[in-house]
Amino acid sequence: MHALVRRTHEERVLRVLREHGALSRGQIARAVGLSRTTLSEITGSLLQRGAIVVVDTDAAKREGSGRPAERLALDPASGQFMGVDFGHRRVQVAVADAAHEIVVSGSDRYDDAPWPIRLEQAFQLIDRLSVESGVHYGALQGVGIGVPGPYSTAPGVLIPAADEAAAPGQPEVSAQAAFARRFGAPVIVDNNTRLAALAETVFGNSSVQDLLYLRISDGVGGGLVVGGRLVTGSTGLAGELGHITVDPNGRACRCGKQGCVETLASVPAILKSCRDQGLAVEHLDDLAAAVERSHPTADQVLRSAGSAIGRVLGTASLILNPKEIVIGGEIIRVAPAVFQQAIATIAFEHFPGAAKPLVRRAELSDDDGALGALAALFHSSPLLAAYPETPDATTAPIECARRKTNRGVAYGRAH
Amino acid sequence: MHALVRRTHEERVLRVLREHGALSRGQIARAVGLSRTTLSEITGSLLQRGAIVVVDTDAAKREGSGRPAERLALDPASGQFMGVDFGHRRVQVAVADAAHEIVVSGSDRYDDAPWPIRLEQAFQLIDRLSVESGVHYGALQGVGIGVPGPYSTAPGVLIPAADEAAAPGQPEVSAQAAFARRFGAPVIVDNNTRLAALAETVFGNSSVQDLLYLRISDGVGGGLVVGGRLVTGSTGLAGELGHITVDPNGRACRCGKQGCVETLASVPAILKSCRDQGLAVEHLDDLAAAVERSHPTADQVLRSAGSAIGRVLGTASLILNPKEIVIGGEIIRVAPAVFQQAIATIAFEHFPGAAKPLVRRAELSDDDGALGALAALFHSSPLLAAYPETPDATTAPIECARRKTNRGVAYGRAH
User: Closest by alpha carbon to B271, among B243, B297, B308?
Assistant: First the structure.
């Protein structure tokens, strides 16, 4: 084989393993479009040089006829990836090795602190985790950062981070620049709801190329994945599902409009609707208790919220024709009526005979932001910038699942 | 330069010229990511071998300081592309050379004939055009076919054409297979509204990567372009804007739902609303006459239709954050109130301070379907299937405009 051709093939195999974690030879062959014979030559050489290793886990036994398929992965020591999720009240960090196993994770609270303090706390947390675990970050290949609020990013382009909390007169602080300086690695930043949407594409029976994600929390946010890629939109605002009007005469919304779905279906809006109808609920726990004893007011408010969510998702589904619709947020777990009503309304919004998307609950919880950032990192193209003359290959759909390992939660192979 | 590297560079230069028509050296260098020096070596060799030629038009004078930039294009004789648009009542054909100049075009009526007859008429038309013009199709590189109705296609994958008009019991007839057999060239097929959406991305001051398209005709249809690519959705139904509910208690729709935007804003729906209010209008011409004398009933019905369109597009815009929204259909020209009201409603659906998309009328008319199919062909990846180991390069945004040439309408360079 010609040396340049061999090197190109090797790079593609390494890239697929970087993106997907451990894979069987058959999965690699399909993903890179090489024959088994050619692939065997390439993987043999990579194994010999220690760039990749053979791994075998319980999950592998599920493949095919039951005979465990040997799976290959990047040498775990050959790289590390860091996921960081900045929430309004806490930062979370998770570090995975090149085989996608989580080797370090932790979080710290900061309660709405300004941005420079959030950054400083994040770095302290990262240092403390290193001391506690003995893991150093010498092989860091990239950092994925989730931030609250709209964030514009174009594939393959590194841009400054949002400076939402930089005080007037203070020097602007870019999370992206700060992490890039600290670790000397490429950094991608995006809205954390969008990263969660991307992370949800790797769950279930197959990796989903077209997915619509909505999360109910203090607000209502969303994210779109089309053709396997996050949609950012022309100014970084794609997926603003929360501000779609569902009741033109409804409550005033913080965005300046009236009757946005957020005014009916965010957690604070649901609690307020309950209180307006005489049901004393201050927190989600109170609502959970009311649901527990089947309080009709709670049920009616929750169904109304679910219907509003369903109208927005049904409309978005007619526009985008996704394979899956995923609804996230703790309230989905606490109050099943929201989810049930949303499913019914989504179905009603589709015309009879139209193929309807699968509607499911989110796999990642609100506390899994760092895992979402890691998943996005594994799937992002900026890290491939080292190969500018060989553009991102279209990889074949590969089936993935989250699995528990002895070292925590990892993104791995279901079969 | 290594021979394999040189060949890869040459292929990328040819591909960019195939996709965009004539370009200056600077535009080519940006699009393929090569230095001017390397590019100069590549283009010199291609020019010497006659694979590309130097072209210079008025449009080139607009580039930079006013000094005309020499532009390069594929040798016009080196390839031909055919666009075919099957409507419900007529077929249109346009053939362009490798430099994107239209060399042959024509159309023929068939008035709702079954699919095999439509195909036969298309082939007869194509043969007749060849005889009349003296143009043969020996250099045909690809055929783009637009069909009415939903159509599923995945990028890079050739799939059988929709057989919507094949009578029960009759053998299925695939337009794609028939054209592929006839011309021995790759064939892409998609819904013609979606092709029109893609074609609209090349108009204006810059090629638009994110565009939302809606067309008002016998029904209401749509198409989405995200990141420069057509969105098909998981089952080929993306862009079904016509069946979004705007009035839950509205008229019954042919889809089985009630109050879809199509029941308020399609041309037949608008005419019916006028008649229901005592204004005798049978055809679009009657409506045009009523608009001409500022009939208040016509104005009110048209504003109501525009408002329904605007609600759907405003919602879709919050979801997708497109750079441009394009509204097409003859009624937009005949009845400006629809367009004006749609713009106002779209603006109202965006929250204050949000970046709003540019809303404009379609450049291609309903009769330009074959040009839409050609534009889609120039931008489609299936034709690149000859280079499976070198996936589709991300080309830099390049500014395009439609221009008139001595041989008709061509997709060319604004500067």
Answer: B297
Q: How many A×B Cβ pairs under 8 Å?
A: 148
Contact partners, residue A149, CB within 8 Å, separation at least 6: A162, A164, A191
The whole-angstrom separation of Cα B62 and Cα A349 is 50
State the greatest distance between any 2 C-alpha atoms of chain A, in Å, as a whole number. Answer: 77
- Residue A117 makes CB contacts below 8 A (sequence gap 6+) with A110
**CB-based contact, B237 to chain A, within 8 Å:** yes
Rounded Cα distance between A314 and B240, Å, is 12
All residues of chain A having their beta carbon less than 8 Å from the beta carbon of residue B322 are 233-234
Are the Cβ atoms of B394 and A239 closer than 8 angstroms? no
Residues from chain B contacting residue A214 (CB–CB below 8 Å): none
| CB atoms closer than 10 angstroms to residue B185 | 18
Spans of chain A below 70 pLDDT: 1, 57-68, 149-173, 203-206, 380-415
Cβ distance B116 to B164 under 8 Å? no
Residue to mutate among A39, A351, A395, with most B CBs inside 10 A, is A351
Q: Is the pLDDT of residue B352 over 60?
A: yes
B248 touches chain A (CB under 8 A): no
- Mean pLDDT score, B286-298: 96
B397 touches chain A (CB under 8 A): no
Q: Which of B33, B318, B322 sits opposite A244 (nearest CB)?
A: B318
Q: What residue in B sits closest to A211 (Cα-Cα)?
A: B234
User: b vs e for A221-231, b when ≥16 Cβ sit within 10 Å of the residue's Cβ?
Assistant: bbbbbbbbbbb
**Cα A124 to Cα A253: distance, rounded to the nearest angstrom:** 37
**pLDDT tens digits for range B203-250:** 655 578 899 999 999 899 999 999 888 898 988 889 989 999 999 999
Q: What residue has token string 């949002």?
A: A162
pLDDT value of residue B175:
81
Rg over alpha carbons for chain A, rounded to the nearest Å, is: 22
Helix (H, G, I), strand (E, B) or coil at A264: helix
- What is the DSSP code string of B169-222? TSPP--HHHHHHHHH-S-EEEEEHHHHHHHHHTTSSSS--SSEEEEEESSSEEE
Instruction: Return d(Cα A25, Cα A40) in angstroms, integer.
Output: 8
pLDDT tens digits for A203-219?
655 578 899 999 999 89
Which of A234, A311, A323, A394 has the most B C-beta neighbours within 10 Å, making it the best mutation to test the interface with B?
A: A234
- The neighbour count for residue A280, using CB atoms within 10 Å, is 8
Are B238 and A388 a contacting pair at CB < 8 A? no
pLDDT of residue A68: 62
Q: 317-376 in A: which are within 8 Å (CB) of B?
A: 318-323, 349, 351-355, 357
Query: Amino acid identity of B282?
Result: E
B210 contact A CB<8A: yes
**Helix runs in B215-324, H state only:** 262-265, 267-276, 284-292, 296-320
pLDDT tens sequence across B163-177:
333 444 444 457 888
Q: pLDDT of B181-202, one tens digit each?
A: 888 888 888 888 888 898 888 7
B4 part of contact set with chain A, CB < 8 Å: yes
Q: What angle do CA A33, A36, A39 make, to 5 degrees?
A: 75
Do A278 and A271 touch, CB atoms closer than 8 A?
Answer: no
Give residue A293's pLDDT: 94
Structure tokens at A329: 């947020």
| Per-residue b or e along B340-351, where b marks 16 or more CB atoms closer than 10 Å to that residue's CB | ebbbebbeebbb
Q: Which residues of B touch A244 (CB under 8 A)?
A: 315, 318-319, 349
Q: Under an 8 A CB cutoff, do B315 and A315 touch?
A: yes
Q: For residue A119, give Cα distances in angstroms to A86, A132, A174, B155.
A: 9, 20, 9, 42
